[in-house]
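Protein modeling request. Please complete all fields; requests missing the sequence field cannot be processed.
Requester role: graduate student
Desired output: 3D structure, token encoding
Chains: 1
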Amino acid sequence: MTAVGLPTPGGPEALVPEQRPVPVPGAGEILVKVAAAGVNRPDVMQRKGLYPPPPGASDIPGLEIAGEVVALGAGVTSWKIGDKVCALVSGGGYAEYCLADEGAALPVPAGLSMVEAAALPETFFTVWTNVFDLAGLKAGESFLVHGGTSGIGTTAIQLAKAFGATVLTTAGSPEKCEVCRSLGADLAIDYKAEDFVAAVKAKTGKGVNVILDMVGGSYIGRNYEAAAPQGRIVQIAFMEGSKVQIDFMRLMLKRLSHMGSTLRSRPEAEKSVIAASLKEKVWPLIEAGKVKPVLDQTFPLEKASEAHARMETSAHIGKIMLKVG
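Delivered output (325 residues):
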């Protein structure tokens, strides 16, 4: 099969199409003939040598796919050959065939193309487990997500709004802010033109109940300022850096909770629980057209380097995708 390898860490040009053996599914695994795969920030970090795959995972980048089941490992009962699925994987997505744990796969929602379906797993699993499971966002609460036009941001805006929250977000231009509002954001803040802390307080009075942050760095202390008393902050990445000098007094006085999580290295059993929640609570919203993946550009698998170059401009709105075949 054709796959995109990473012989040595580096820039986008480090991604090189090559020939690999088709993987064989083990117990509890399905083999998917990949139609499309998503491109995500963790892929960029892996390419740079900053985020190695977990033990036992493929060294091929790619954390989400959609396609057709073509082989079953021992004990698989959830799927049959010919089923159309999208799946969260621990690696291997940038390829013509990819293994997935049967519990981390979901049916392609009715009405979606394979490219759209492949845009779902990484961001929807991430937003659900962090915003709803970990931070416990509830209807009537307020929610702030940074980077509103990223794949995570566009997903978080829609899901938080669909489940009854007041949604605030930051984005890097008036045009991006308008996209956020079109997705349901009640307030979109151009962080290059105004202070998001002041804007959040002006909108909410006491601050927001839940914050989803992938920026880190200077945003950590500012999130403490923007949070309401007893607010919950979930850290899922550190684009501005993971080391910062900070005064924790605000965290104590406001009784804040600052949590963090990763998804890729979690046990498959935990991912299966997330998948089951998504199938029950979110897939009906997608099939009803109330929530949708937002797509930026789609590149052929062999042009994965161009897809990464696009992501590094930060000009994209929504998901950058690879089409296979």
